[in-house]
Design a protein that fits this description.
8-stranded antiparallel sheet; 9-stranded antiparallel sheet; binds (2S)-amino(carbamoylamino)ethanoic acid; binds manganese (II) ion; single chain; 49% strand
């Protein structure tokens, strides 16, 4: 069916709103039987890269020089690192520090959200170690005492990490309590449900599968609409002074 040049996708100076109809697939160096939909990268001003990796059977990611965070959206991944082999199923995730030799592959069809960021070390703070976990293993807490808006912080709360990745679940009708404007940037993947996202002076209807990049101080607000909860995975730079948020 022709879309006659219509899409909800939009690129603005301080944000990017991408819907699945406009996704373009590409192969990144070292990838085998795997395609990447690159959602955000330094090309738009982001200080991280986020892509969805779509693995065919026997698919594999290429290497990276950066830290890597992988959240499995569908299927199962194998991770080989530190002479161990582990399996990571849907909603499981892993953090891999910069410089750790590893291999990420899939025996069958699999989709994963991949975030890569050059590490910004802090004097007298240990660099983080690799780990694997699952969303179900993380306790949620309400945002601003609103029981209808639950947040899970997928990375440990220590200064070692220079970024955060959270899931946020809104019951229908719940919303962010304010229009946020902050120095941190965001990479956001809508996982379930939908609603209305305000980005800058634009308002977007959004549903599962959409991706949003928000630059520093991009005005942002979300309200969940529909009969099922809205859920997203959200990245932000974290735990570093704005003056030193550069890799050395
Ligand atoms: O963590 C955050 O800044 C989050 N509340 N932002 C967002 O959901 N747009
Ligand atoms: Mn925010």
């Amino acid at each position: 069916m022709h879309n006659l040049g219509q899409t909800r996708s939009s690129r603005k100076q301080d944000h990017l709103f991408l819907t699945p109809d406009s996704f373009v697939r590409t192969t990144l160096p070292g990838m085998q039987a795997c395609l990447a939909i690159v959602h955000a990268s330094p090309a738009i001003g982001a200080r991280f890269t986020q892509y969805t990796a779509e693995f065919e059977p026997c698919g594999e990611l290429g290497p990276t020089n950066a830290q890597r965070f992988i959240f499995v959206l569908e299927g199962e991944l194998q991770l080989e690192a530190d002479a161990k082999e582990s399996k990571i199923g849907a909603r499981g995730y892993t953090y891999l520090p910069e410089g750790l030799a590893h291999r990420v592959s899939a025996s069958n069809l699999c989709r994963a959200a991949v975030i890569e960021k050059p590490y910004c070390p802090l004097d007298s703070v240990d660099t983080p170690a690799a780990f694997i976990s699952h969303e179900d293993a993380v306790a949620s807490h309400p945002l601003d005492n609103d029981p209808d808006l639950q947040v899970k912080c997928l990375l440990p709360d220590t200064m070692s990490f220079d970024f955060a990745v959270n899931t946020m679940v809104y019951r229908p009708g719940a919303s962010l309590p304010m229009v946020e404007m902050h120095v941190m940037e965001h990479g956001l993947l809508m996982l379930e449900g939908g609603g209305i996202y305000r980005l800058g002076e634009s308002w977007y209807s959004t549903s599962a599968g959409d991706f949003i990049w928000m630059g520093p101080w991009c005005p942002q607000w979300f309200g969940a609409i529909g009969k099922v909860p809205a859920k997203y995975l959200i990245y932000k730079d974290w735990n570093r002074h704005p003056l030193i948020d550069e890799p050395r």
